[in-house]
Design brief:
The chain has helices at about 5-15, 20-30, 40, 50-75, 80-110, 110-140, 145-165, 170-175, 180-200, 225-230; strands at about 40-45, 45. The chain is mainly alpha-helical and about 230 residues long. It has one domain. Helix 5 (about 80-110) runs antiparallel to helix 6 (about 110-140). The protein is elongated.
Length: about 230
Amino acid sequence: MAIDDKIGDAKKFIQPIRSKEQFRRLYLDSLIRSPELRGYFFDGDKRKDDDRTKYLYSELARMLDDAYEEYGKESFENKGFFRRFFGRPLRAVGSALAAASHYLLNVYYSPEAYAVTILPALGLMGVADVIEGLSYLYHNHEGYDLLQVPKLVLESLLEKGLAVIPGYITTLPELVAGSTKFDRAVARKILYRAKNEFIKKFGEYKEPEKQYSLEKIIIPRKPEELRKAA
C-alpha cells in the first residue's frame, strides 16, 4: 500500500464528515480497491485507463453519491444540537482530564490523584458516547445499523480501556477517533449499499478466460512413438 493510501486511511479516523465531496474523496478510492470491485478497475497493481473503466468509475461515483444522499446526508451534515454542543466538548474535556490524571501519576507518582481524576474523565467520555450514539440511532435505525451497535460498543470500550493505561498518548484514540467511529459506521453502510448497487447492475467480476491457440498445444507422444523416434 502506498504512503498516500495510508494517509487517506488515517484521515477516516480523524476527520468528521461534513459534505458529499469530502466523503467521496475519503472513500471512493478505497471502494474501487475492495476485493469485490478491484478487478473492474485494476489489472494487477496497474490502474486501468480505457473508456469502459472510466464509464464504470463514473457510475460507481454516482451510486456512491446517491447512497450518501439517502443514508448519510442527515447524519453527517446535521449532527444535532446535543451531539454538536455537548458530545464533542464532553469528550474533549474527558480526554484532557484523563491526560492530566496520567501526568499526576507519572510525574507526581500519586495513584490517589490518578484515581480521583481518571474516573470523572471516563464518565465524561462515556456520556459523550451515549449522546453521540443516540444521535446515530436516531438517524440510522435499520437492521444494518443495529448490527453495527456491538462493534460500536466494542470500540468504545477499547478506547476507554486504552485511556486508563498510564501514558499520555493513550488518550489520543478517544480524543481523535471517539466521535468519528459513528461517522465510520454510517460510511460502512453507504459503501455497502453502493457496492451492492454496482454489482447488481454490472455483475460480479470474473477474470477473462484465457485463449489458447491449437498450434501451441503440445500433445504428448505415445511411448512406442518415442522409441521409434529415438
